[in-house]
């Protein structure tokens, strides 16, 4: 499970990922932008624009803890 990911758009998704022992990724789609804004300048996990960017994160496109944007892809 330590190599698995959970991609979500809410803080509860990120908490579920941590509880399950998997790596969380927040997407800005859905409720993700609101969640990211609530975190402020200290993201709780990698934050990406969409599911495609999340896939890039999973295969190593952005470093953990960075906010991945289209310009980073």
Q: Got a strand count?
A: 4
- Say what oligomer this is: single chain
Bulk shape: globular
Radius of gyration: 11 Å
- Main β sheet profile: 4 strands, parallel
Q: Averaged pLDDT, please?
A: 86
Detail the poorly predicted runs.
none
Q: Helix share of residues?
A: 25-40%
Beta-strand level of the residues, as a percent range?
A: 15-25%
| Class computed from helices, strands and strand pairing | alpha/beta
Please, how many helices?
A: 3
Strand order of the largest sheet: 1-2-3-4
User: What is the H/E string?
Assistant: EHEHEHE
Distance between the termini: 26 Å
Please specify the SSE layout and strand pairing.
Layout lengths: L4 E4 L2 H10 L2 E5 L4 H8 L7 E2 L2 H8 L8 E2 L5
Parallel strand pairs: 1-2, 2-3, 3-4
Short description:
The protein is of the alpha/beta class.
Descriptive labels:
73 residues; alpha/beta; four-stranded parallel β-sheet; 3 helices
Describe the structure.
The protein has 73 residues and is an alpha/beta fold. The chain contains 3 helices and 4 strands. It has a 4-stranded parallel β-sheet. α2 (32-39) links the parallel β2 and β3 (47-48). The model has no long low-confidence stretch (mean pLDDT 86).
């Amino acid at each position: 499970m330590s190599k698995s990911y959970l991609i979500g758009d809410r803080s509860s998704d990120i908490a579920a990922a941590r509880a399950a022992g998997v790596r969380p990724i927040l997407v800005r789609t859905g409720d993700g932008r609101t969640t990211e804004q609530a975190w402020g300048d200290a993201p709780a996990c990698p934050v990406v624009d969409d599911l495609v960017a999340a896939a890039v994160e999973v295969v190593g496109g952005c470093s953990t803890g960075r906010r991945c944007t289209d310009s980073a892809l």
